[in-house]
Each structure stands twice: as structure tokens, then as C-alpha cells.
Amino acid sequence: MEQIKELKIKEYQSIPVVVGESDSVYDAISAMFLEDVGTLFVVDESSHLAGVLSRKDLLRASIGNQDLESMPVSIIMTRMPNITVCKKDDLLIEVASHLIERQIDAIPVVNEKENNRYEVVGRVTKTTMTKVLVHLIHSELPQGGKRS
Ligand code: ADP
User: Fold this and answer.
1) Residues in domain CBS (predicted)?
2) Which domain holds residue 6?
3) Full pLDDT tens readout for the chain, 148 residues
């Protein structure tokens, strides 16, 4: 239990999938399918974090007869400064608590730059937490031990 409490984000983070804030909603939907992720991070022209797009954000924008190819993601995304972020040295258990308390599926891992701007370097999701659980249980098995 004490070891679990000390696990850091950097050991488990995965690669982020980002789109540009002037990209269209149509392109974001394509990226979500092609990259097989449930959350996209949106970056501005200088590659700093500008927003987050969830599956439901994109679904909501798709309802009705709107032209998704001419609608930029910047008008539907959740934007800075309302984004929950984490850093690679944060404790995994604290970030897991943020996912639950804020009822979100993913948190970008960031490097802080000048003027409260962030570079996106990773991604932590509910799936990350499920993988950690499985990894921990497997690594608890004695060497050569049999899994039931
Ligand atoms: P879904 O909307 O598909 O259920 P989420 O629960 O992750 O997926 O997202 C819920 C809302 O919270 C969405 O509007 C999304 O833009 C926003 N959101 C997702 N991740 C974050 C985050 N890390 N920080 C702030 N808002 C977020």
C-alpha cells in the first residue's frame, strides 16, 4: 500500500493526441477514431495547451445540421484556464482522485512554460489507472508463481 501511494505519473503516462485549435470538428472526430482515444488535447499556434475535447463534446457539436468541416474545435472545446492538468512527478493516486472528483476521463501531463502556459507531454486516463491496477496485481505474484 505504501508503494502504491508513491507511484508517479511519469511511470505510467501515455502519448497525448493533439489537434490544433483551428482544426475542424470533422478533423477532430477523424483523429479520435484514427488514434483510438477518447479525449483530444487542443494546442494553439505556439503548441501550448488551449483546450480539451471529449467524445461528448464532439457528439454534441454533431447534433443538428451544422457544417462540421467549417466549425473550428475552438468554439466547442473546454478551454484554459478551466483544464485540469498534472505534471510527470505528481503522485498517481492524487491524479486518480482528480479524475473521479471532476468526473473526467483524461488529464494532460504538462511541462509548465512561461506565463502559465503549458506544453503537453503526456496523457493519463481512466484506462491508465486500470492498467496500473493489473500491473500491480501481477507484479505481486511470487517469481514463477501461478496465476489463478
Ligand atoms: P465525456 O464528455 O465524453 O463524458 P469527459 O467526462 O472526459 O468525457 O468530459 C466531460 C467534460 O469535461 C467535457 O466537456 C470535456 O471537455 C471536459 N474535460 C475533459 N477532460 C478535462 C480536463 N482534463 N480538464 C477540464 N475539463 C475536461
Assistant:
1) 12-68, 77-140
2) 2-140
3) 888 899 999 999 999 999 999 999 999 999 999 999 999 999 999 999 999 999 999 999 999 878 999 999 999 999 999 999 999 999 999 999 999 999 999 999 999 998 889 999 999 999 999 999 998 888 876 655 454 4
How many domains is the chain built from?
1
CA nearest ligand 1 atom 12, residue: 104
In the 8-state DSSP scheme, what is residue 117?
-
Task: Tell me the ipTM for this assembly.
Answer: 0.98
Residue 145 is assigned to a structural domain of this protein: no
61/77 Cα distance (integer angstroms): 10
Query: Grid coordinates representing 126?
Result: 481512466
Query: Which grid cell sits at 101?
Result: 472528483
User: Ligand 1 site: residues with CB under 6 angstroms?
Assistant: 39, 52, 54-57, 78, 82-84, 103-107
CATH code at position 58: 3.10.580.10
Instruction: Give the mutation target among 56, 97, 125 for probing the ligand 1 site: most ligand atoms within 8 A of CB.
Output: 56
Q: How far is residue 99's CA from residue 125's CA, in Å, rounded to a whole number? A: 8
